[in-house]
# Entry
Amino acid sequence: MIRKMTLADLDRITEMEQILLTSPWPRSAFEYELTGNPFADLRVYEKDGKIIGYVDWWIMYDRAEIATIGVLEEYRRSGYAQEMMDLLVNDAREKDCENVTLEVRVSNLPAIRFYEKNGFIKVNVRKNYYDDNGEDAWLMVKPL
Ligand SMILES: CC(C)(COP(=O)(O)OP(=O)(O)OC[C@H]1O[C@@H](n2cnc3c(N)ncnc32)[C@H](O)[C@@H]1OP(=O)(O)O)[C@@H](O)C(=O)NCCC(=O)NCCS
# Structure
């Protein structure tokens, strides 16, 4: 089941973020997303009462952006991220966005495959995008 993220989820989300991502967002960033960012929509994927994934996307007028998406390793390749992607793409379509964009580490092949399966195209490289190791990011776009 996919449901809205709440402040009560943030201890667990912050822990998962540390496990899932190389440059994890701090709790304060999620708090801001939930309480101070009018463009943000945050959801969790809950299975048997346990959060196994989450997504944060922004709808900014005519474009949508995926801020973060992740699924715990032991639950991968079961279609959970796909369900979250379908939800956000439908939302972007309903709100008349022209495209969905995201940035992804050039080394993150599983995520790149996932995005390509969903119609995202690599359109540009953002040089030295990540602070931790200076890695480049692909800017990927899915036209709607
Ligand atoms: C990217 C990520 C969210 C995918 O989650 P997931 O739940 O495993 O994805 P799904 O099961 O919904 O995959 C849907 C399709 O995407 C593609 N895909 C997903 N993971 C893939 C992989 N490791 N290799 C190749 N293709 C993959 C496949 O086409 C898959 O369909 P299939 O399993 O029927 O072949 C997950 O790997 C993850 O959480 N990674 C760590 C966090 C991260 O890097 N997030 C992105 C930051 S930009």
Q: What stands out?
A: Strands lie at 2-4, 40-47, 50-60, 63-71, 99-105, 121-126, 137-143. Residues 80-94 form the longest helix (15 residues). Residues 20-21, 69-71, 76-82, 104, 108, 110-111, 113-114, 117 surround coenzyme A (CB under 6 Å).
